[in-house]
Amino acid sequence: MKKVFVSGDFNILHPGHLRLLKFAKDSGTYLIVGVHSDDISGKGISQDIRLESIQAASCVDEAFILDIPATQYIQKSKPDIVVMGKEHELKENPELEILANYGGKLLFSSGEIGFSSMDLLRQEFLSLSNNVTHSPNFIKRHDMKLETLKEIIEKFSSLKVLVIGDTIVDEYITCEALGMSQEDPTIVVSPLATNKFIGGAAIVASHARTLGAEVQFISVVGDDDNRDYVKDGLGDLGIESFLLCDSTRPTTLKQRFRANNKTLLRVNHLKQHSVSKDIETAILKKVQESIDTVDLIIFSDFSYGLLTDTIIKNITKLGKKKDIFMSADSQSSSQTGDITKFKGMTLVTPTEREIRLSLNDFTSGLVVLSEKLSKKSHAKYIFTTLGAEGIMIYNDPKKSFLTDTIDALGSLVKDVSGAGDSLLTCSSMALAVGADIWQSSYLGSLAAAVQVSRLGNVPIKKEEIIQELN
């Protein structure tokens, strides 16, 4: 670990300070900031307030009140690098001799223009303002009570959920747009910050956990740093994960390059070949060992090779034998993906496009599509997601009220990725605790609205859903 040290009064934390701190952080791996004590500073703002503002800077790893000269601290602690403002470069700097004695470096910089907005950029990811609107007509049509919906959410803590599917790591690279290249018509950007999120089937498991359930998660990852990121993230949530390492593939990584709140480019690092027979056997053995304690099985398929026909058929057979609720989503990134390979599910949540691809039908209306999918896959309930238009619900054909729709409940949309995962998770859990199709579809739509109101896949807490129902 390369430690970097910066010290100063930091009387009022301004963009110049933030640029300096960002430069210091980029120069090493661990940034330590010494805030001059009131005795040393002699400024009007108290040391506690100045320290608090430094601690709030996202690039600072450690901050403390410095009540001795910086040279004494450097001599005692021996940081690898000391960073000072550019204005000190032509002055006498006693730090140089101290650093030279043990091989440390002294760097001068005022940071780079544009980097001072780092903390504002991060607020884009930290903002949890949901801006959810309800559908009073749907609620009235199905005689739903908000108190009943809250009771359903509270029952989630009684569930034991098994999630199986493709793990994805989502990485957002926030950039500064520098303009157009002079050599060719290419947009030039400079990366400012990176934010990672657990995605794919792993976020489905995470949603289920933060909504209150006990969760087991089965997936395949590569032998790389992203495997450790996923493992640590799931462990922090208290999820029991069974991650099989496959040396023939990386942990799937999806990078989004963004500038000015817009996505410029997405780069996917993945392999889509089917897992080996050995991995199939290991997965089925794990499911066999766990099945007796499971109330709900969720298949989260991104067509990246984990959910083979052998795995799907064997787990589905076990689930039916034990009378376990099962749900599935099979996302189609291009022309691959087939929701009809999941037979006999309680719930499936495809997009309209995914149904059309599976059925090779690009002309029929939505209700006819649902009927065809129901007959081919024997799914009990179908929620067709329609993006900004919300979802269409296709009920059990034996029921008198066959179809209905819920308009999209999110009034502020920042990032649509993850909306389907949150709908699948929350609706499936609601059905598993006894909610009817209308209640479960509404709770799933609320979860999706919460998800799209923020950037990145952040696990939805049950308190957030309850808050929207108050």
From TrEMBL:
<dbReference type="InterPro" id="IPR011611">
    <property type="entry name" value="PfkB_dom"/>
</dbReference>
<dbReference type="GO" id="GO:0033785">
    <property type="term" value="F:heptose 7-phosphate kinase activity"/>
</dbReference>
<dbReference type="InterPro" id="IPR011913">
    <property type="entry name" value="RfaE_dom_I"/>
</dbReference>
<comment type="function">
    <text>Catalyzes the ADP transfer from ATP to D-glycero-beta-D-manno-heptose 1-phosphate, yielding ADP-D-glycero-beta-D-manno-heptose.</text>
</comment>
<feature type="domain" description="Carbohydrate kinase PfkB">
    <location>
        <begin position="160"/>
        <end position="456"/>
    </location>
</feature>
<protein>
    <submittedName>
        <fullName>ADP-heptose synthase / D-glycero-beta-D-manno-heptose 7-phosphate kinase</fullName>
        <ecNumber>2.7.-.-</ecNumber>
    </submittedName>
</protein>
<dbReference type="InterPro" id="IPR029056">
    <property type="entry name" value="Ribokinase-like"/>
</dbReference>
<keyword id="KW-0418">Kinase</keyword>
<keyword id="KW-0119">Carbohydrate metabolism</keyword>
<dbReference type="GO" id="GO:0005829">
    <property type="term" value="C:cytosol"/>
</dbReference>
<dbReference type="InterPro" id="IPR004821">
    <property type="entry name" value="Cyt_trans-like"/>
</dbReference>
<dbReference type="Pfam" id="PF00294">
    <property type="entry name" value="PfkB"/>
</dbReference>
<keyword id="KW-0511">Multifunctional enzyme</keyword>
<dbReference type="GO" id="GO:0016773">
    <property type="term" value="F:phosphotransferase activity, alcohol group as acceptor"/>
</dbReference>
<dbReference type="GO" id="GO:0033786">
    <property type="term" value="F:heptose-1-phosphate adenylyltransferase activity"/>
</dbReference>
<keyword id="KW-0808">Transferase</keyword>
<dbReference type="Pfam" id="PF01467">
    <property type="entry name" value="CTP_transf_like"/>
</dbReference>
<feature type="domain" description="Cytidyltransferase-like">
    <location>
        <begin position="6"/>
        <end position="87"/>
    </location>
</feature>
<dbReference type="InterPro" id="IPR014729">
    <property type="entry name" value="Rossmann-like_a/b/a_fold"/>
</dbReference>
